[in-house]
Design goal:
The protein is an alpha/beta fold. It is built from 16 helices and eleven strands. The strands form four sheets. A five-stranded parallel sheet has the order 2-5-8-1-9. Helix 13 runs antiparallel to helix 15.
């Protein structure tokens, strides 16, 4: 009982701290509460996020604000076709000492940070994109045969323009799967855009302040993994992921017709973590079916592919996921929401 009371107290304290963090972020990144929630959920889960949106929607400002609020050292890489792996990872240089002796010294690249912004990640060549694969999955890089760990915490927030695809290299499935969530950054509504105009074109712009320290974020990530998950939520996650695989018996005829391939076990793991994080952000002690419904699209979208016939008909992944959610957990989610 004492252990349960301690866990409740820790969740309450972290929930209050997350409320302060959200308020600080929202002062600069105005009117995008859903985007902020998803980014924080990814970081609390120890994962990476892929921000998909048109230029000028504040993606770079969001990452800069996050580094301040979460107390993380940050780096930014502008991905271009001529970017090389060494520009990300670092390289060894030969130095001559005063006594004439020579030795190699490793110069760390921008990946050696706690929060890395990979701007327009799909503009770099596949060889350069793959330089991030090991860093994102294993939290270490290998340069000249040496394994060099990246100190915790380590998060990648990458951006991608969904419209202008000329001169880009689509991210391979293996790299897309490294992103815990895909976060769609959309145009603000009229009222929000008015608030943005008034807040950002005056003499002084709102400033963010530090709320977390790196060690506090690491502790929060450990707490997320300790949160209890009900059996109904576990079953809903399994039902949803398996129903999105065209080769599974649980998949409907519509799914089998629309999808070329579906999400793997890593999607279920991502859902298990992010629903806990979302519950914590909303001040709850355990996730519900509603959290599974809310996190389905961000977790599954980049882990599925439409069939050629479905693309020809104009079907979208968002429509497929919405249909599966309605079929698999729609009734439970509605009851939970009520």
């Amino acid at each position: 009982m004492a252990g349960t009371d301690d866990l409740i107290a820790e969740i309450e304290a972290l929930g209050a701290k997350l409320g302060q963090a959200r308020d600080s972020i929202n002062r600069r990144f105005i009117g995008q509460e859903r985007v902020v929630e998803l980014v924080l959920a990814a970081m609390l889960s120890g994962g990476h996020g892929l921000l998909v949106g048109l230029p000028g929607l504040g993606k770079t400002m969001l990452v800069d604000t996050l580094s301040t609020v979460m107390g993380l050292s940050s780096s930014r890489i502008q991905f271009t076709p001529d970017l090389m792996p060494a520009d990300i990872l670092g390289s060894e240089v030969l130095e001559t000492a005063a006594d004439g002796t020579r030795a190699f010294r490793f110069l760390e690249g921008p990946v050696f940070c706690q929060l890395l912004m990979a701007d327009e990640i799909n503009r770099a060549s596949p060889r350069t994109q793959s330089a991030l694969l090991q860093a994102m999955q294993e939290r270490e890089v290998t340069v000249a045969g040496q394994h060099r760990p990246l100190g915790p915490p380590f998060h990648v927030l990458a951006t991608q323009n969904p419209i202008e695809q000329e001169g880009t290299y689509p991210l391979p499935e293996a790299q897309l799967d490294r992103f815990l969530v895909q976060i769609d950054v959309e145009y603000p509504d009229r009222a929000t855009e008015r608030d943005i105009l008034l807040a950002t074109t005056g003499v002084e712009a709102a400033a963010a302040h530090q709320v977390f320290a790196p060690e506090e974020l690491i502790a929060a990530q450990a707490l997320v993994r300790r949160m209890p998950v009900g059996e109904s939520v576990v079953e809903a996650i399994l039902d949803l992921v398996r129903a999105c695989r065209p080769g599974e018996a649980e998949a409907s005829a519509a799914v089998k017709d629309a999808l070329a391939w579906g999400p793997g076990p890593r999607a279920a793991q991502a859902l298990m973590l992010t629903v806990r994080a979302r519950a914590l952000i909303h001040g709850r002690f355990a996730p519900t079916i509603e959290d599974v419904e809310a996190m389905a699209r961000p977790v599954l979208t980049h882990r599925m592919a439409l069939s050629f016939a479905a693309r020809a008909r104009g079907v979208t992944l968002a429509e497929v996921i919405a249909r599966v959610v309605a079929e698999v957990i729609g009734g439970d989610a509605a009851g939970a929401a009520a």
